[in-house]
């Protein structure tokens, strides 16, 4: 059976990159980045996860159907997180008192 | 880049026989059989992504609602232990990838060695995790049981949400590690019996995918649970 055998060098390279990125994410967490603190942390985590999936899990040699499934999984995950987050994020808008909705104003049915 | 084994005529015949014995009748070729296994494994892993995703969603919402309380917990998180554990898992992923490679090249002894190394790293991770959880218990940071938060009394309730998520997420992750250790034990026994070779290594590759997936979950857990707040 024909199959791809990755070189030791590519595996060790990813391993070193992952260790460096782990060190980076700890170092960066000591910096005051304000709002971007979580953005940088997640970006580094995404790069690390992509390296693991692409090289260690062999997505780069996998069939197109498998890749489609991987991408679909990420889309479902982002739908779950982003739409739930968007709901909570915008929910407070309901409670903004509007001038035209004040009691006793013009147009209020008594 | 990619190495290919150069089989002799005798081993080629052997490979063909081995392939024939592992090829199920409903598949046309060994390649198709391996592709089907890979797709099935990824489908399972995506259900796992969504399983952990539920907890990540809860984390997102509560962190959005109580950002200051969440950030206050970071100074009580053992970043050194968490960092070491991240390194240990990354090393175990390397040895797991090398296990798959050894199986692909029919290197029986190195397959066994790399599987044992992977199990040692996995066990190390679980031991460090135990030390961490024990520390949490001693420091009264177990929500619902013995929680105390004297430095920030105003965050007493909301900080517990983070510690609750911490125990849920690291707990489920550790459970996956324990399952992985069981699967690795099975692989180890089979590798000592020399079941896997260049024509049949599907279980090694599938359990490898699972092991790497558990590593990816930890890659996200580490910054989200240990490195939330800005620490000097």
Task: Describe the 3D structure.
- The complex is a heterodimer of chains A (110) and B (232).
- Chain A is 64% helix and 0% strand.
- Chain A is mainly alpha-helical and 110 residues long.
- Chain A folds into two domains: 1-61; 63-95.
- Chain B is mostly helical and 232 residues long.
- In chain B, α2 packs parallel to α7 (202-226), α4 runs antiparallel to α5 (108-138) and α6 (156-192) runs antiparallel to α7.
- In chain B, 39% of the residues are buried.
- Chains A and B meet through α1, α2 and α3 of A and α2, α4 and α7 of B.
What structural category do the secondary elements of chain B indicate? mainly alpha
What is the total tally of β strands of chain A? Answer: 0
Order of helices and strands of chain B: HHHHHHH
Number of individual domains of chain B: 1
Low-confidence stretches of chain B: none
* Number of alpha- plus pi-helical segments of chain A: 3
- Which two protein chains have the largest interface (Cβ within 8 Å of the partner's Cβ), and how many residues from each? A-B, 55 and 62 residues
Please give the largest β-sheet of chain B: none
Low-confidence segments of chain A, given as residue ranges, are none
Number of self-contained structural domains of chain A: 2
The overall pLDDT of chain A, averaged over residues, is 86
CATH topology of chain B: Four Helix Bundle (Hemerythrin (Met), subunit A)
Question: Which descriptors would you attach to this protein?
Answer:
heterodimer, A: mainly alpha, 2 domains, B: 232 residues, mainly alpha, Four Helix Bundle (Hemerythrin (Met), subunit A), 7 helices, elongated
In terms of topology, how is this protein built?
The complex is a heterodimer of chains A (110) and B (232).
Chain A: H1 8-28, H2 36-56, H3 64-91
Helix pairs in contact in A: 1-2
Chain B: H1 9-22, H2 30-65, H3 67-72, H4 79-104, H5 108-138, H6 156-192, H7 202-226
Helix pairs in contact in B: 2-6, 2-7, 4-5, 4-7, 5-6, 6-7
């Amino acid at each position: 059976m024909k199959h791809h055998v990755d070189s030791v060098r590519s595996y060790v390279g990813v391993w070193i990159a992952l260790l460096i990125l782990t060190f980076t994410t700890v170092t960066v967490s000591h910096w005051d980045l304000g709002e971007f603190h979580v953005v940088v942390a997640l970006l580094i985590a995404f790069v690390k996860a992509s390296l693991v999936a692409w090289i260690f899990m062999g997505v780069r040699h996998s069939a197109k159907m498998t890749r489609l499934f991987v991408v679909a999984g990420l889309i479902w995950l982002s739908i779950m997180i982003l739409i739930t987050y968007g709901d909570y994020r915008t929910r407070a808008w309901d409670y903004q008192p509007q001038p035209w909705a004040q009691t006793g104003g013009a147009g209020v049915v008594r | 880049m990619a190495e290919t084994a150069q089989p002799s005529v005798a081993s080629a015949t052997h490979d063909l026989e081995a392939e024939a014995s592992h090829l199920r009748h409903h598949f046309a070729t060994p390649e198709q059989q391996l592709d089907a296994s890979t797709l099935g494994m990824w489908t399972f892993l995506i259900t796992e992504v969504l399983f952990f995703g539920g907890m990540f969603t809860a984390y997102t919402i509560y962190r959005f609602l109580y950002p200051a309380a969440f950030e206050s917990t970071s100074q009580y998180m053992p970043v050194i232990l968490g960092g070491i554990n991240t390194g240990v898992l990354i090393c175990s992923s390397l040895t797991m990838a090398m296990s798959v490679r050894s199986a692909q090249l029919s290197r029986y002894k190195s397959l066994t060695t790399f599987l044992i190394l992977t199990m040692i790293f996995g066990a190390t991770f679980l031991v460090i995790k135990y030390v961490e959880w024990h520390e949490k218990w001693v420091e009264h940071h177990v929500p619902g049981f013995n929680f105390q938060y004297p430095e920030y009394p105003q965050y007493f309730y909301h900080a517990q949400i983070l510690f609750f998520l911490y125990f849920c997420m690291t707990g489920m992750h550790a459970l996956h590690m324990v399952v992985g250790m069981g699967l690795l034990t099975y692989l180890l026994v089979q590798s000592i019996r020399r079941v896997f070779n260049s024509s049949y290594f599907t279980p090694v590759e599938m359990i490898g995918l699972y092991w790497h997936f558990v590593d990816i979950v930890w890659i996200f857990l580490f910054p989200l649970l240990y490195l939330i707040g800005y620490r000097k």
